[in-house]
Design goal:
Blueprint lengths: L1 H17 L3 H19 L6 H4 L5 H19 L4 H6 L1 H7 L4 H20 L3 H10 L6 H26 L5 H23 L8 H7 L2 H9 L5 H24 L1
Helix pairs in contact: 1-7, 2-4, 2-7, 4-7, 4-9, 4-10, 7-9, 9-10, 9-12, 9-13, 10-11, 12-13
Length: 245
């Protein structure tokens, strides 16, 4: 209980800092507006042109927008602490390294969830527009996949922020790392040299493979284990970086 209370104090501090300026609100607003435009306005991607009730467009474009949104959320997590010298102050308080990392991680993930939560109105809108109903199982699985995707991107962003005291560099590192982990393995698996059977296993190393798997509506324990493993790996790297500092 003591661990949770101290972790929550860090979390609340991060949330206050993020929402203390317009930047946080603008980042979330941009995420919602872009998804709305792709789903309802832009030609060739909106549901009206498709002619059937589906959120496939949203669940295929949301990861790419999150790939930029979450690095924007996490880029100041540790970089600003290092730059301002407040990380040393944090270390003088009765806080463990695990509490600091967990608090910052939880705050960033909560912000990401705040951005995703309003998109549930898309489900309601689609159900009202459709005469045959919507694929509830597929949509539920896709939202579960989106949650784990955001959780992994958040862990990557926190880790990248612990490498530097420059928030912009942290953003660029995080966006690049998220892109690589999300789609690079699938691209590598398409190289002809790996088409003899290794392509499937290489593709399984990427997030996209597991995200698509969950989005089918079937939540496989192997996908859950994969996401949790990747999250713990980047949190471990973050802890190692803080030890060096």
């Amino acid at each position: 209980m003591h661990f949770i209370l101290l972790m929550w104090s860090i979390c609340k501090k991060e949330l206050r800092q993020f929402f203390s300026s317009l930047t946080g609100y603008i980042a979330i607003l941009v995420f919602l507006v872009l998804n709305g435009l792709f789903l309802f306005v832009f030609p060739d991607s909106n549901i009206f042109d498709a002619g059937y009730a589906s959120l496939d467009t949203f669940f295929s474009t949301a990861p790419w927008i999150l790939l930029l949104l979450i690095p924007a959320i996490t880029m100041r997590s540790f970089s600003e602490e290092f730059k301002g010298g407040t990380f040393e102050i944090l270390q003088t308080k009765p806080l463990t390294r695990a509490q600091i990392i967990s608090g910052k991680y939880l705050a960033s993930l909560i912000i990401a969830m705040i951005a995703i939560l309003p998109t549930l109105i898309y489900v309601y809108t689609l159900s009202r527009l459709s005469t045959e109903g919507v694929d509830t199982g597929g949509i539920t699985g896709s939202y579960v996949g989106l949650f784990f995707l955001a959780a992994v991107f958040t862990a990557i962003g926190i880790c990248c922020s612990s490498f530097t005291n420059n928030a912009v560099v942290a953003f660029l590192l995080s966006a690049f790392a998220c892109f690589m982990v999300y789609s690079a393995f699938e691209a590598i698996s398409r190289i002809p040299a790996f088409q003899a059977g290794a392509d499937y296993y290489i593709e399984m190393l990427g997030i996209d493979h597991h995200y698509k798997s969950i989005s089918r509506g079937v939540i496989d324990s192997r996908d859950i284990v994969y996401f949790i493993t990747v999250i713990l790996f980047f949190i471990f790297l973050t802890a190692r970086n803080l030890v060096k500092r």
